[in-house]
Design goal:
The two termini are about 30 Å apart. Strand 1 and strand 2 form a beta hairpin. This protein is about 40% helix and about 10% strand. It contains eleven helices and ten strands. The strands form two sheets. It has an eight-stranded parallel sheet, with helices on one face. Strands 1-2 form a two-stranded antiparallel ribbon. With about 325 residues, the protein is an alpha/beta fold.
Length: about 325
């Protein structure tokens, strides 16, 4: 499968990243192993997780996703060097302030490495900005981890254009590693925060982009077209936000493309992202092998300029 350069990191990834937030939550260990095996068998090679996944589940404390990935790595035929592991640090855990202090980063990376059962993390992301810690302190901590060989590259998630620019300026001023990857929320419905200054900055600075919520918590699969459809689903608190006039207009445009191409809506949502200049590879989750098939179909699906315009207008 064609690989894409992930910004200036030196890492090459297939066009879709597996979202590991489901591991230990909506996908148990056995299912997770089967999904990861099939994902790599199909030619994909990157997994995204975080130290806080899945602390939102009753009885969990965070790190469950990393633990499952670590167990899979140990028993899998996939060589460690053939897997690109992305994890994150700095998101509060059940009300406990973590943040991006040097002390916490040093503790958190060792805990992640232990759960992942590996000597290094390919890409380590600041999960969200931390206004209480100077950027220089955070970047210096990441620099130390790179020198120690614990991480290969760094990036950030949930940063605005101004926050990312400030981080880039701080890195340049202090001769520190810069954030070479951004993980924003971006999909056919949620576009305003990324499109414009932030996307332009990523293109101009050659920053790799691996966006999350690519399927809008499942809404862009077309399964949820009324509030009643969202009742009882794991992400009902998010999916319900999209069931409105604009959301249904987006689905209507996707339906039209589906008629013309024969593709499923999930395939179309991912294929739309794959044609966006600023996006390196969208992150998508799956809890069944049938859902995983959508990743392969999306990579092969070629949307015309007319289809892209139709989809763009519907979600504007």
């Amino acid at each position: 499968m064609e690989k894409r350069s992930l910004g200036r990191t030196g890492l090459s990834i297939a066009p879709i990243v597996f979202g590991g937030n489901v591991f230990g939550w909506t996908a148990d260990e056995k299912t997770s192993f089967a999904l990861l095996d099939a994902f790599f068998d199909a030619g994909f090679n990157a997994i995204d997780t975080a130290d806080v996944y899945s602390a939102w589940v009753d009885g969990h404390e965070g790190g469950e996703s990393e633990t499952i990935i670590g167990k899979w790595l140990k028993q899998s035929s996939v060589k460690r060097e053939d897997a690109v592991i992305v994890t994150k640090v700095g998101f509060d855990n059940r009300g406990q302030k973590t943040g991006l202090s040097a002390k916490w980063i040093a503790e958190a990376v060792d805990a992640s490495l232990k759960r992942l059962q590996t000597d290094y993390i390919d890409l380590y992301l600041a999960h969200k900005p931390d206004a209480e810690v100077p950027l220089e302190e955070t970047l210096t901590a990441f620099a130390k981890l790179k020198e120690q060989g614990k991480i290969r590259a760094i990036g950030c998630s949930n940063y605005s254009a101004s926050q990312l620019q400030e981080a880039l300026d701080t890195a340049a001023k202090n001769d520190l590693p810069r954030y070479d990857v951004l993980q924003p929320e971006y999909n056919l419905y949620n576009r305003a925060d990324f499109e414009g200054p932030l996307a332009d900055l990523c293109v101009a600075e050659e920053i790799g982009v691996i966006n999350y919520y690519s399927l809008a918590a499942g809404f862009l699969t077309g399964k949820y077209r009324a509030k009643a459809d969202t009742e009882g689903v794991a992400r009902s608190y998010r999916v319900g936000e999209y069931v409105n006039t604009r959301g249904l207009a987006v689905l209507g445009a996707m339906d039209a493309v589906a008629v013309e191409t024969g593709a499923k809506l999930a395939d179309i949502a991912l294929a739309w992202l794959l044609r966006k200049k600023a996006v390196t590879a969208p992150i998508a989750s799956a809890t069944s092998l049938s859902q995983l098939e959508s990743f392969k179909r999306a990579v092969d699906l070629k949307l015309t300029d007319e289809m892209m315009t139709l989809l763009d207008k519907a979600g504007a």
